[in-house]
Design a protein that fits this description.
It is built from 11 helices and 7 strands. With 305 residues, the protein is α/β, with parallel strands linked by helices. Strand 5, helix 6 and strand 6 form a beta-alpha-beta unit. It is globular and about 50 Å long.
């Protein structure tokens, strides 16, 4: 059977991986590799290192390189790896993109970090430069809540004409905006949801999956939800979605890396604490998250029939 092109493998559940950093600042590569194996065995469709859950804003150049190299090596081609590229300057973003492609990633998740406001023209130029520097598919990342200069609808429409800009991951809480994007770009760009959206609802309006931190904690249930949505079993899908939404609520309540790292620690993965000055998950948060995870492990609703 012929191998699928990289871009044809971009669908389904792509967990945003945490970044396990030891006290001396080195990447705990064995823990990360073990997590990769665990997630692939659970059936996830891809992996995304250096997303928001991966604390990209707190990592240095060497740490980012080691994380990407570890994930690519551990995945060993079993699922596509889409690495986050985030920078304040276009030159650094291009450098990261070309380095990560050299390490063997299948795609780039392009993120803009900005201290000063940037015009639409220069926002578009930033993403065009990343896409021009690589041949692999590029996923645009939009998050109006955290980004000082975000992708506007006209810029997204223009970037949809770039041949290897094939996907967009939307981390807003505005499903109406997401539908506006879909109507604007048609089939030129496919849409991934984030934990801020209800994944089953995004699938219902035409999304191809989701890239999100909670899938690290509930990979099997997330894959089951995707399968139900793909099969059009919407009643079962929404039953399962209501159960799983508790993890998303905890994710929003206790902050990104703290919640996922704390949950993985509960599950036996020694991924460590979020990088300072971020706070670790509180005891109250650990107790609440442990209860949620236990309840989901006990639940069996929502399987495909």
């Amino acid at each position: 059977m012929a191998l699928l092109r990289a871009e044809d493998r971009f669908f389904g559940v792509f967990p945003y991986l945490v970044s396990p950093i030891a006290a001396d600042g080195t990447v705990n590569r064995q823990v990360l590799a073990d997590l990769v194996d665990h997630l692939i065995a659970a059936g996830v469709h891809g992996l995304t290192p250096l997303g928001s859950t991966g604390e990209f804003a707190y990592l240095d150049r060497d740490q980012k390189r080691d994380i990407v190299a570890t994930v690519v090596e551990a995945a060993a081609g079993r699922v596509p790896v889409v690495a986050g590229v985030a920078a304040n300057t276009t030159a650094e973003a291009v450098r990261q993109a070309t380095e990560f492609v050299g390490l063997g990633v299948d795609g780039i998740l392009a993120i803009l970090e900005a201290y000063f406001p940037i015009s639409d023209e220069n926002v578009e130029a930033y993403f065009r430069a990343i896409a021009a520097s690589v041949e692999c598919p590029v996923v645009l990342y939009t998050n109006p809540q955290f980004q000082r200069s975000d992708l506007s609808l006209p810029v997204i429409a223009s970037l949809a004409d770039v041949p290897n800009v094939r996907y967009l991951k939307d981390a807003s809480t505005n499903t109406g905006r997401l539908l506006s994007i879909m109507n604007l770009v048609g089939d030129r760009i496919r849409i991934f949801a984030a934990s801020a959206h209800i994944p089953a609802c995004v699938m219902m309006i035409g999304g191809v999956g989701w890239m999100a931190g909670p899938a690290c904690l509930i990979p099997e249930q997330s894959v089951r939800l995707f399968d139900l949505c793909s099969a059009g079993h919407w009643t079962q899908a929404m039953t399962l979605q209501r159960m799983l939404w508790r993890v998303n609520q905890a994710f929003a309540k206790y902050s990104l890396a703290a919640c996922i790292k704390g949950g993985l620690e509960i599950q036996g993965f020694p991924v460590g604490d979020p990088l300072a000055p971020q706070a670790s998950l509180s005891e109250e948060g650990r107790d609440e998250l442990a209860r949620i995870l236990r309840s989901l492990e006990a639940g069996g609703e929502g399987s495909v029939t």
